[in-house]
Known about the structure:
By secondary structure, the chain is of the alpha+beta class. It is built from four helices and seven strands. Strands 1-2-3-4-5-7-6 form a seven-stranded mixed beta sheet. Helix 3 links the parallel strand 4 and strand 5. The longest helix has 14 residues.
Amino acid sequence: MGKYEVKQIKNLLDFDLNRLLEQSKEESFRFVERLVNDYKTGSNTFNHFGEGLFGVFNEEGVLVAIGGLNKDPFSKERNIGRLRRFYVIKEYRRKGIGDLLVSKIIEEAKRYYKVLVLHTDTEQADKFYTCIGFIKADVYPNSSHYMEFKS
């Protein structure tokens, strides 16, 4: 595996997002487009307490993966975070990039939340998240998987 770095993204619009957008649309994933649109409108900029947007950058400084952490907007409980808008460019998959990014998001989530949830409807993502330690269950609203953190 080459040299990759996970960094918190303070302003998404400072980065070239064309490759992420084009490839995700080709795969019929609209959540990267929603990420950009929500960011532009200000409806979700991952800048509230306990939130963050993270990217993985390759040796050339190119953004090759992205994922965010929000307070779960579907839960009434304050101690639930949501992993959102997680996407890895195709040629960087199965190289540990997703693990690297989700590990950073989990590490960050543990600082603020007791539970981290997410929603996915693909078999490939289901396998990825359950291998990391998420439990597949519809225990939390609008979620397919969750992970509880020990106090």
